[in-house]
């Protein structure tokens, strides 16, 4: 992609306004939190104090809207604590330009590294930089700094208290995540009716797993509907794939295929009904047609072999899903010991070593997060010094605009930069016009600022340009409380936002962290984890008595994580103005399809495990022994750009098939596995 096209795509993405589900009750609750802090400070304190203290509640309210599985009060308190610390440190160094620039640089660098922990942590870090730049413009003493920091923390405490006192749709995020996973499987079942080898994106299942992790306190109050369906969804997916597959399931044509389509359609109906029940806290309602389709016909089962086993397993799992979901939502039970050991969400103090390991893992020159931290720290310091030298009244807006738009990848930084400037232009124009025509007093300006806060909370998911317009209006009205002239505010905000956006975009152009050169490494990681998953499944055939489902499960989770990392890298690389450097995007897509097929075939084998008392399969053991070294060599060849060689496992499979096991599920699926690996080799021509 050329630079001109990349910039056009980024601008179009930044200015896009999306249709999103609005949550007015949550927006009202967040606005009330800001109103409480603002009103109390106007009543008991001063307008200047009200302006600075309102940012704590405002930022804490933003945190409660983030897609995080942690409790909303915890997020609000975490933001409030971080903002209070950054405010206090900023006040201590504000009187000395050099000291403040050094503090700003170091703090912004740490905030940039916070993206290594997760997107919510990165957003919180960005907000701490913003509060450090804004609130320190008010001169005060050390005791005054402590008071300001306490007010910032009080704003977060107010938001957390409101979340506890006025809960809106408790467990809503967890319910949506689980319902999305079930609905995705329903859609998968429908697509399998027409395409027996249709792909499936495991992202909804990954989100549902993240949502199912709870703290010990949450485990005592979690509704029944959020306990069992996720595990059933994980087990239903391979059964659906094995029933539909024309090689190990129902034949491609004939009565058995018609019966398979009927079962897949009924499964889709049941899964949709369960998803609806989970999402809306209601009992499951099933049409009679679906119930009838899941019964064994009077003429007999109609399916034979592995397809028959898959059909019976599917009917049993769907019945369990309905039974587990169709219970009173108020009833609760503690999590089992297995769930507690595997899906317990660590407390905030226990996250510290996890966060430190993430920071240490990303503290290397090649890391895009580390380079982002260096980039944003340099831009924040440069923007602050430049704005100070230009002697604008609110010079902090330049570094603030830069920090708020910068992200670790190119596309988001550029699209947010365009959206920030466009939104700011609209916001200050509308707010400035209102200030010029109405000349509102302090309390009216506060009411208008709260209206902007409500609109921002309500429209937060529609696009960054919309939220930028609301924030710009909020700042204009907020500064109107202390009597700042609207003419100066509008001019400064537009000019300094433009300067900050230009600095952010130039920084990425001069010091990039492109994702395109890392595509081969990401693909090799996915191949390696897919291989471990396949070897773990084959080990169950080679040694049935020692079969370890936990090992297979962990290998599957690693493969899903590697696939998610690859897809994120590929999506970022598509938007970068960089040559492919050895792996073109068409080749990347073909390779991705081959590895997705490899995972699907392995999943089908997993759906037909042998009994523990079954005889070991020498062919499966030999094939796994040949496949393991071949995968290691292929991963190295993929990174180096050399040809991939699958001759050793191919020869082993041919011998295995010739020994008379050609009717088994494992040997037939391994043939499909080799076909997928051959497709991978064809999709990746060696470097010239």
UniProtKB/TrEMBL annotation:
It is found in: Membrane. InterPro entries: Memb_transporter_dom (IPR049453), YccS_N (IPR032692). Keywords: Membrane, Transmembrane, Transmembrane helix. Its main location: membrane. Residues 82-189 form the Integral membrane protein YccS N-terminal domain. Residues 384-506 form the Integral membrane bound transporter domain. The chain crosses the membrane at residues 21-40, 149-168, 373-397, 417-437, 442-460, 466-486, 493-514. It is a multi-pass membrane protein. This is Integral membrane protein YccS N-terminal domain-containing protein.
């Amino acid at each position: 992609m050329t630079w001109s096209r990349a910039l056009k795509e980024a601008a179009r993405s930044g200015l896009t306004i999306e249709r999103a589900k609005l949550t007015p009750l949550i927006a009202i609750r967040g606005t009330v939190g800001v109103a409480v802090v603002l009103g109390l400070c106007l009543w008991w304190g001063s307008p200047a104090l009200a302006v600075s203290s309102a940012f704590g509640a405002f930022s804490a309210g933003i945190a409660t809207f983030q897609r995080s599985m942690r409790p909303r009060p915890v997020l609000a308190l975490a933001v409030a604590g971080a903002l209070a610390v950054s405010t206090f440190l900023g006040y201590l160094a504000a009187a000395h330009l050099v000291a403040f620039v050094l503090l700003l640089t170091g703090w912004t660098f740490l905030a940039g590294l916070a993206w290594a922990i997760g997107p919510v942590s990165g957003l919180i870090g960005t907000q701490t930089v913003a509060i450090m730049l804004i609130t320190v413009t008010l001169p005060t003493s050390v005791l005054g700094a402590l008071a300001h920091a306490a007010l910032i923390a009080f704003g977060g405490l107010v938001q957390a208290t409101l979340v506890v006192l006025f809960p809106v749709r408790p467990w809503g995020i967890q319910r949506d995540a689980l319902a999305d996973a079930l609905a995705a499987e329903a859609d998968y079942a429908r697509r399998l009716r027409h395409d027996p080898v249709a792909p499936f994106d495991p992202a909804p299942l990954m989100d549902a797993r993240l949502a199912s992790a709870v703290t010990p306190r949450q485990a005592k109050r979690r509704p029944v509907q959020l306990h069992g369906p996720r595990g059933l969804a994980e087990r239903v997916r391979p059964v659906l794939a094995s029933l539909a597959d024309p090689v190990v399931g129902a034949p491609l044509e004939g009565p058995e295929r018609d019966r398979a389509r009927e079962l897949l359609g009924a499964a889709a109906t049941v899964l949709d009904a369960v998803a609806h029940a989970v999402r809306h806290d209601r009992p499951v309602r099933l049409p009679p047609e679906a119930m009838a389709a899941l019964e064994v016909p009077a003429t007999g089962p109609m399916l034979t072999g592995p397809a028959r086993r898959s059909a019976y397993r599917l009917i049993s799992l769907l019945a369990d899903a309905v039974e587990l979901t169709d219970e009173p939502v108020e009833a609760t039970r503690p999590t089992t010991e297995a769930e507690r050991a595997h899906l317990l969400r660590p407390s905030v103090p226990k996250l510290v070593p996890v966060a430190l390991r993430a920071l240490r893992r990303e503290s290397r020159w090649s890391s895009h997060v580390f380079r982002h931290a260096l980039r944003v720290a340099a831009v924040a310091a440069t923007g602050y010094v430049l704005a100070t030298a230009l002697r604008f009244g609110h010079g902090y807006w330049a570094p603030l605009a830069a920090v708020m738009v910068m992200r670790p990848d190119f596309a988001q930084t550029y699209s947010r930069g365009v959206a920030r400037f466009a939104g700011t232009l609209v916001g200050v124009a509308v707010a400035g016009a209102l200030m010029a025509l109405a000349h509102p007093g302090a309390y009216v300006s506060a009411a208008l600022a709260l209206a902007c806060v409500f609109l921002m909370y309500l429209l937060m998911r529609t696009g960054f340009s919309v939220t930028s317009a609301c924030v710009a209006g909020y700042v204009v009205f907020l500064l109107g409380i202390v009597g700042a002239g609207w003419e100066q505010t509008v001019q400064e905000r537009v000019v300094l936002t433009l300067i900050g956006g230009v600095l952010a975009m130039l920084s990425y152009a001069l010091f990039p962290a492109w994702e395109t050169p890392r595509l081969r490494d990401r693909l090799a990681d996915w191949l390696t984890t897919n291989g471990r998953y396949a070897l773990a499944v084959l080990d169950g055939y080679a040694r049935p008595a020692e079969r370890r489902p936990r090992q297979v499960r962990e290998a599957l989770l690693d493969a899903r994580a590697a696939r998610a990392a690859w897809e994120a890298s590929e999506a970022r690389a598509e938007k970068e103005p960089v040559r492919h450097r050895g792996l073109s995007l068409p080749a990347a897509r073909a390779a991705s399809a081959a590895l997705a097929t490899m995972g699907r075939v392995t999943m089908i084998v997993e759906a037909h495990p042998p009994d523990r008392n079954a005889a070991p399969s020498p062919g499966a053991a030999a094939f796994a022994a040949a496949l393991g070294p071949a995968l290691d060599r292929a991963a190295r060849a993929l990174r180096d750009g050399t040809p991939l060689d699958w001759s050793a496992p191919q020869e082993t499979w041919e011998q295995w098939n010739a020994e008379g096991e050609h009717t088994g599920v494992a040997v037939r699926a391994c043939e499909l596995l080799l076909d997928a690996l051959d497709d991978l080799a064809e999709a990746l021509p060696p470097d010239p």
